[in-house]
Amino acid sequence: MSEPMSTQDKVLILHGWGGSDTPHWQAELAATIAKEYGTVSFPLLDNCHFPSKNRWIKQLKEILEDFKPDTVVCHSLANTLWFWLCNESTMKEIPQIKRLFMVSPPSLTTEVDTIKTFFPCQLPEKLYAKEVKMIVSDNDPYIKVEEVEAMAQQYDIPLTVIKDAGHINTDSGYGKWELIEKLVLDKS
């Protein structure tokens, strides 16, 4: 059973390669949380079009220390960033969060020159979250469903597979997205 979000909960939204500005669902989610008087941080990570794993990890550690989120929502490369952070850190460096939403993680062996510092990546032993939900598409160009199923199985977490949703981004029609808003805001 999921823990409902309280108005005091802080939500950190982490974008992937290239950012997630309007009309991406992450920008819409940030606006919806703010409209509900929630506390949200939706930072633009350093040099988002040509990201460096080490710079992003350093920036994320600073954000976690300053903002102290209860919920983290990752899309695409942000999931890989979270894996790296968990692989390199200890509980002292990353306090356990309440909820982690992982949307459209790319394959752990992605081969794209611009983001090559992030790959290959190993799954961390733990994700430093009390509750984790993973959402993917059955036709994501960056990962096969079988690999995501293995990830979800390793952590014994629920996996939602959406039919024909591509990379669950603006290009595949995901601007305002009721499912993620309902899950993050926990509106029953």
The biggest sheet amounts to:
6 strands, parallel
Query: Which percent bin holds the helix content?
Result: 25-40%
Strand elements, count = 6
Distance between the termini: 12 Å
Taken from the alpha-carbon principal axes, the silhouette is globular
Portion in beta strands: 15-25%
Report strand order across the widest sheet: 2-1-3-4-5-6
Q: SSE order in H/E notation?
A: EHEHEHEEHEH
Indicate the low-confidence ranges by residue numbers: none
Contiguous helical run count = 5
How much is the average pLDDT? 93
Overall radius of gyration: 15 Å
Please state the structural category. Answer: alpha/beta
Layout of secondary structure:
Layout: E1 10-14, H1 25-35, E2 39-41, H2 53-67, E3 71-75, H3 77-88, E4 97-103, E5 129-137, H4 145-155, E6 159-162, H5 178-185
Parallel strand pairs: 1-2, 1-3, 3-4, 4-5, 5-6
Helix pairs in contact: 2-3
